[in-house]
Task: inverse folding
């Protein structure tokens, strides 16, 4: 297949592009390099050094003999989107190309507006380009399990059958997300569902859990192929961040009670899920949702797990929750569609938790401990993150 | 109360401002005059002549002795929003200030993106300004019954109790709207619900049906106080448009089978509902939804009604549906909260239908019949509306 990976320079986009290339697909990557810019804005950096996109692609060619075609440009630039799709002629477009940090979207008004406009307009441009050029192109869109929030009922895959006052319908699962970032994904989902309905576009919305891990079979082939590993309070996600905190002797910071339970998955399963979605497209006009995760963990349980298996001494500290969220709640989500397509999950093991800490120890000289503390308080409209100074902290 | 009406130069915003002023509130209006610009862009005009905002406000002062303070500016301009709220110090903000035509949003990509960015960013700016200045300000937001689509179950007011696999929760009512415009309102609703939760803002989301009528007790006091009356294929809503079609001998154009059923209300009830919402604010942090309509009609029934009571001969023509929507479907929505607050509805009568046609006959010399035909086809990505030429039609 010909597959275009949007956001193909990012944490998940790059290893997905490698995986799909290795699997025999013709792969192009599109990126505006915004993720690298956020690092500069926040004064932080990936734990593991990463190369520029051009070098990554060149090394991949040397190592594998395979070609990945890079397109540098912005999805909010519609002529660019249209021209890229026209030139590459993809069968599927895998769309990771959005601002993906909840705390980043909650820094202040400017970052909230930027996140929603960037994500929503990029996806609208893509929908229009597909509708204009070729409605058979399969849009594989990265959503998030966070779109659902934490309802007191089981979370189904995108839709739920509701019987009410003696009548029944299957309707979109209600959304109640916890940040302006997550809201941008809810907006996208509604826009995509509508575009499928009116234009006969086919789309898979992958409501993904929180991803952990950093190495994939392809990134391990050469240091130039490494993908990023974020540990800072803005872009670092929970397990990866805990691994770094353990490595540098910083207490594992649990926000509030730590009973927040989330759906999670191994980075290698992200790659497998995306490929399964591409290989099994929906019908024309179909909008389908896959819940893309393998296990559910509470933040507290993850902290304890890291403490138990880390090869160093680890302490755990509960800090005031900078987010507004339930800290103890029911959580159970359904995921059957990806397993039915053949997903063989990598469940989290002691070995994997330990290897994450060991990876962090290898690169601990690159860690800026100041960047770990959460600096974005959802209750205020302007957080202390000093954007002007390009630095995190007070 | 001090009430700021955003979009206070528009079809509903202006008579709402007059009504609230007459009722004894201190009223300010905010408008960027975009609605007048859309007329120029489309080469159409209000059936009833309307005055510029400054003249309207001056005449209101002469007629009533009451002052309405105008603010000319754009809600996407955050410093303007912040300064206006700082200066006016409202108790409530009534937010009509959005692009409100479904077909306009479906003209092409540019109009879809404009509608979503304009509406979503304007509302985000407002939420941030309220959170920054005074979280007690009550945001009375105009949503639309179209946010719900036409589910096969009864539409509740914003939320629905769902029992699923033995567990129960009250969750946002699922949304499945029929245009990029309606989607912008869905996005707003999700953003507002979240802002109430994290910042303790209070908001009422008025999911309004389709409004008909043009005269209110205040607009009738002087020709300068008239509000607009749209009949064109882009901005004209169903009953008002049919009245004009009847007046000029243009067949009533029913899109498809005409079984599309929608919630509707009289313009005078819009004014009453908005005031009831202002006078009865929700608790701090509460996001509540009122379904703001009084009756449900199918398009077919409305056409027959106009035909039956019009003082002229009227024909009805079914034309291919330019929209993508169910043409026969179950539709029943609940509305109890506004009646509980005291709403006394003006139900549609033969007299009112006839008076609408008579109003249209009075101004039939101002009608451009070319503007009536629907020119926006939802199935294509670029409609025939020639924006460059500022004219409707081929």
Result:
């Amino acid at each position: 297949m010909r597959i275009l990976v949007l956001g193909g320079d990012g944490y998940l986009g790059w290893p997905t592009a490698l995986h799909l290339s290795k699997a025999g697909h013709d792969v192009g990557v599109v990126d505006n390099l915004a993720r690298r810019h956020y690092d500069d804005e926040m004064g932080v950096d990936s734990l593991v050094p990463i190369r520029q996109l051009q070098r990554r692609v060149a090394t991949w060619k040397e190592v594998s003999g395979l070609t990945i075609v890079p397109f540098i440009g912005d999805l909010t630039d519609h002529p660019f989107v249209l021209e890229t799709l026209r030139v590459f002629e993809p069968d599927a477009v895998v769309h990771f190309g959005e601002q993906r940090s909840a705390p980043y979207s909650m820094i202040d008004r400017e970052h909230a507006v930027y996140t929603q406009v960037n994500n929503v307009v990029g996806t609208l441009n893509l929908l229009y380009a597909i509708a204009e050029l070729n409605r058979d192109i399969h849009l594989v869109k990265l959503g998030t399990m966070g779109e659902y929030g934490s309802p007191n009922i089981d979370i189904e895959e995108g839709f739920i059958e509701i019987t009410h006052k003696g009548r029944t319908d299957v309707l979109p699962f209600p959304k109640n997300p916890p940040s302006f970032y997550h809201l941008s994904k809810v907006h996208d989902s509604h826009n995509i569902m509508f575009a499928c309905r009116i234009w006969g576009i086919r789309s898979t919305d992958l409501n993904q859990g929180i991803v952990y891990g950093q190495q994939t079979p392809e990134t391990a082939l050469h240091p130039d192929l490494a993908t990023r590993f974020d540990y800072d309070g803005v872009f670092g996600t929970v397990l990866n961040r805990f691994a770094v905190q353990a490595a540098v002797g910083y207490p594992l910071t649990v926000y509030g009670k730590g009973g927040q339970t989330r759906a999670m998955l191994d980075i290698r399963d992200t790659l497998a899920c995306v490929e399964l979605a591409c290989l099994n497209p929906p019908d024309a006009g179909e909008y389908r949702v896959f819940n893309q995760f393998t296990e559910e963990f509470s933040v507290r349980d993850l902290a304890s797990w890291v403490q138990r298996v880390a090869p160093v001494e680890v302490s755990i500290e509960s800090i005031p929750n900078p987010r507004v969220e339930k800290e103890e709640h029911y959580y159970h989500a359904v995921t059957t569609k990806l397993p039915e397509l053949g997903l063989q999950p990598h469940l989290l093991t002691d070995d994997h938790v330990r290897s994450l800490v060991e990876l962090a120890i290898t690169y601990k000289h690159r860690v800026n401990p100041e960047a770990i503390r959460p600096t974005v308080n959802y209750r205020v409209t302007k957080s202390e993150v000093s954007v002007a100074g390009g630095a995190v902290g007070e």
